[in-house]
Amino acid sequence: MKGLKFILAGILFGVIMAKSEAISWYRIQEMFRFQSFHMYGIIGIAVVLGTLSVFLIKKFMIKDIEGNPITFIDKDKSWKKYIIGGSIFGLGWALTGACPGPMFVNIGYGYWSMIIVVLGALAGTYLYGVIKHKLPH
What we know:
The protein has 137 residues and is mainly α. Helices cover 66% and strands 0% of the residues. It has helices at residues 4-19, 25-32, 38-60, 80-96, 100-108, 114-131. The longest helix has 23 residues, at 38-60.
């Protein structure tokens, strides 16, 4: 029963993704072809809400559900790895029509071909773990 809140949050996330059409392959293709503002609006709202949330957490020193302080660690200022990683992520997103969250929502919707995409993502994550120590960080 401890994990119930995470299951409910996942269900809510899936419903929001489906209702906003963020799981639609066609919407994602429109975005990558610069034919529609729909997905940019969703992503923009997410960025604004995320920024506002971090600001409020820092300003009011909000604690997590267990009462521990929420801390943020500054990241490396090197931008090259973010460009490379973002390009790889974006290429996968454009080719499959889904990023990690919507992959699972699409499976829940009955698009069974997304299982192949999930397996590919898991294989890529595993491969990264295997070669991580050889990569520049």
